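Data deposition worksheet. Section B asks for the primary sequence of the deposited chain exactly as it was used as input, without tags or linkers unless they were present during the calculation. Section C holds the resulting structure in token form. Section D is free text for depositor observations; keep each observation to a single sentence. Incomplete worksheets are returned to the depositor.
Section A, Depositor: J.P.
Section B:
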Amino acid sequence: MVALEILIYGAVLSGIYALLAVGFALIFGVARVINLTHGAFYMLGAYITYALSVLLNVPLILSIIGGMAIVFLLAICLDRFIIERIRTTMINVLITTLALSLFADQVILQIFGPDNRNIPAVISDRVTLLGVDIAGQRLLSLIISVAVIATLWLIITRTRMGNALLATAQDPEAAQLMGINTGRMFMITMGIAAMMAALAGGIVGSFLTVAPEMGMLPIIKAFSIVILGGLGSIGGSIIAALLIGYLETIVAYLISFNATELVPLVVIFITLIFRPAGIFGKRRGF
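Section C:
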């Protein structure tokens, strides 16, 4: 029974991590920047969903979509008016996005206060899967995560825009000579990644608490996942999300829940020592 519980709960956790990490990897794969506001987008998605669903009584599904749309617009503005001007200097991007992330934390703290909040669940009932009792909302989050990542993969591999993103990721200068607006591709990438983070925040907030500091730990975990999978590799990030999700679940069951926070840090150290390029090698677009 414990093995089945680890299998199911590990899959749910891995799905959430994959939503966060794939967006993070997408930004680096296309724009070659490490965006530290990614955790803030996750937090903002949760709080906007909370404000719309609880304070304004908007249906939860529409609240999550609204949160994704607002965060998408914020991400596009961030890329257009700030990151575009400093994109060529990695340290400037890191410092600026970190400062903006801390600023977002303080804005949320001033508006909503330090108290934890909860988002109502779409599915309040519990279901039994393979003999394991699990909250319906957690199972729904897994289904949504798989569907969104599969959709993104199809867009990248089967559409004209996806081809443009791939060309930009492989060689921005050559893509620009072919008539591709690389600046627009960078902006679209930032928006898509932010939407995925906001979606993760919106669906997680229904079975975990929503708090101003909730964005810091996910960005550490997303960073550890993309390091393990290989910076810029979406496939590597999905595999790494599964590995870390299941490692944390196993540690929670066999040791303690608090010990799970050490897993991404240990993964970073081990990966950087033994395989700095990650599972899928270095500087791969996707």
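Section D:
The CA atoms of residues 113 and 277 lie 41 Å apart.
The longest strand covers residues 126-129.
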